[in-house]
Amino acid sequence: MKGIILAGGSGTRLHPITKAVSKQLLPVYDKPLVYYPLSVLMLAGIREVLVVSTPRDLPAYRELLGDGSDLGMRLEYAEQAEPRGLAEAFLVGRAFLEGGPCALVLGDNVFHGQDLTRVLERARGRVERDGGAVVFGYPVKDARAFGVVEFDADRRVVGIEEKPERPKSSYAVPGLYFYDGSVCDVAAGVVPSERGELEITSVNNEYLRRGELSVELMGRGMAWLDTGTPEGMLKAAEYVEAVQSRQGYYIACIEEIAYRRGFVGAGKLREVGESLAKTAYGRYLLSVADEAGGGE
To answer: Domain Nucleotidyl transferase, which positions (predicted)?
Structure first.
C-alpha cells in the first residue's frame, strides 16, 4: 500500500501567517505540521508516499523531507496548481498509485493515541484483504464543519453528508482514508459540488452505494486535533508539549518511527541524531539509539 499526503491549499484561515509559507510547514510545538500526517502513514507500515502541494511550496517540502532515504522510505512529489477538492489527490496521484491500494491523509491533521498503530494496521489490512474503503468516525461537539456519518437504528452506516446544517450524528469524518485500487476511477467519476470542488464525501458515498465502505469509530483515548485556525494550532502545540514533557516520548518523531518499524537501523538513527545534537530533538534521537545499542 502507498500513501498520499495532501498538503496544498492557501491556508486562508491562517492568514497572514500563511501568505508566504505553506500551512503544513508551520511548527506544531517542535516539528513541522507535515511530520504528523507523515508519521500516521509510517505507523501504518507505508513506505512509499506522495506529497501533493502547490508549485510554490513543493521546493520547501523537498528540502525538508528529501527523497525519504534517511527514513528508509521513497518520497515523491506532485503539483496541485489550485485546490479543487480533496478527491483531486487521486487524479494527481494516479500514476504514482499504479492501480494499487492507498491511504490518503490530509496534511493538517494530527492524530495521536495509544491504540493508533493497531487501528491503522487494522484498516490497512482490511482494505488489502477485502477491498473497498475504510474511513473513520470521530465524536465532536459541533459536526457542522465536517463530513458527518449517518447511521440507521442498527448503527449501520447509511450516508455521509458534507458540512450539514443539521448533522444527523455527532461523528465527523477526519482526514484519513484507506481505499482499494479502484479509488482513482471512482474519483474520476466525481462531479464537482456546488462549491465547485471534487468532494471526498462523494468518493466515500460511491463506496457506500456499492456496499464497500466501512467506518471505524474512534473513541476515548484517541486524539484528532484541528489545526486550521490559530487557536487550533496553539491547542495542538500545547497538547504535544504536554505529552512529551510529562511522558518523555515524542509524538510524530519520524526518525524514531522509521527505526521502530524496521525501515532503518539504529546506526542511521544515531547519524541523524548527531546531526541535530544541539537540539532537544536530536538528543532524544540519540537516547533512542543508545537504548538500542547504537549499532546497525
So the answer is: 2-241
